[in-house]
Design goal:
This protein is of the alpha/beta class. It contains eight helices and 15 strands. The structure holds ribose-5-phosphate.
Length: about 290
């Protein structure tokens, strides 16, 4: 097996190659003066099982283009089996037509990925709240892996926790709160919105008491940080002792990190699906396991 490291995932690709004890290929990439991308695979991939690892944030468009060039090149160069690992699948949030006339971008990128022919696709905690199984959007065999247990392990490995509870900031994040909570053997919960009046909405943990407990808020993405800040403030208002903020994908639109830290968290941390300064947890073990 050979691992090709896309430019958005150099560290993750190296970690996966190390875990699998296989060769890491760094493609030659150049940008032409007009902005076009040049890609070259500097290795013989003929007859090999090739894994291309490339996240698609940020910037999404050129990272997608690089992914397409790399996948198409390895196919063209005679690779036997091609696996696309797309740790962060950009454009997944538009997974339906919310307003008449909109492009359903998740379906569009799925078709583009399929068109360059990977035999298998892996994503990690893909944001597609209305899609039950990632297999529904790809024609090739596809699997969505999760980083949630790794995030709660990081928490327990690094902090002395008092009666911990894992909380998702909304109904959609229930899946990650449940997986992280179960892995830690801790209580888990998610927040729900309750309408108190025409203009008053209360957001609170569904049933659990958080008073004098340590809480980790878990979400798939921190983008603007708005969701995380709201959740942290609510937990503090309900008496949580210490609050930690965790996500799989640190999209971190400008100012997000400052906002979340400013809400009074002990630490904000993420995985390396998007390589950032808060990428404290690597998803390499789950990716390598899936590839084995
Ligand atoms: C929403 O459905 C997602 O799971 C995240 O909660 C959301 O993308 C976070 O975005 P932001 O950081 O901008 O609030």
């Amino acid at each position: 097996m050979l691992v090709v490291a896309g430019s958005a995932s150099p560290k993750l690709a190296a970690r996966v190659a190390q875990q699998l004890k296989c060769q890491l290929i760094k493609p030659e990439l150049k940008r032409f003066p007009d902005g076009e991308l040049y890609a070259r695979i500097p290795a013989d991939v003929k007859g090999e099982n090739v894994v291309v690892i490339q996240s698609t944030c940020c910037p999404p468009n050129s990272n997608y283009m690089e992914l397409f060039l790399l996948l198409d090149a390895v196919r063209d160069l005679g690779a036997k089996k091609i696996t696309a690992v797309i740790p962060y699948l950009a454009y997944a949030r538009q997974d339906k037509r919310f307003k008449e006339g909109e492009a359903v971008s998740l379906r569009t990128v799925a078709k583009l990925i399929e068109s360059v022919g990977p035999d298998r696709v892996y994503t990690v905690d893909m944001h597609a709240h209305r899609i039950g199984d990632v297999q529904e959007i790809f024609n090739a065999p596809a699997k969505n892996l999760t980083a949630a247990p790794l995030l709660s392990k990081y928490l327990s490995d690094n902090y002395e926790l008092k009666n911990p509870v894992i909380v998702g900031p909304d109904e959609e994040s229930r899946q990650w709160a449940e997986a992280a909570g179960k892995a830690l053997g801790a209580d888990w919960d998610y927040m729900v919105k309750k309408r108190l009046g025409p203009e008053e909405v209360e957001i609170r943990p569904r049933k659990l008491e958080v008073e004098d407990r340590d809480a980790m808020v878990i979400d798939d993405i921190i983008s603007t940080g708005g969701t995380m800040v709201k959740a942290v403030k609510i937990l503090k208002k309900h008496g949580a002792r210490k609050v930690y903020a965790a996500c799989t994908h640190a999209v971190l639109a400008s100012g997000a990190l400052r906002k979340v830290r400013g809400a009074g968290v002990e630490e904000v941390f993420a995985t390396d699906t998007i390589e950032s300064k808060i990428s404290k947890v690597s998803v390499a073990p789950v990716v390598a396991d899936a590839l084995r």
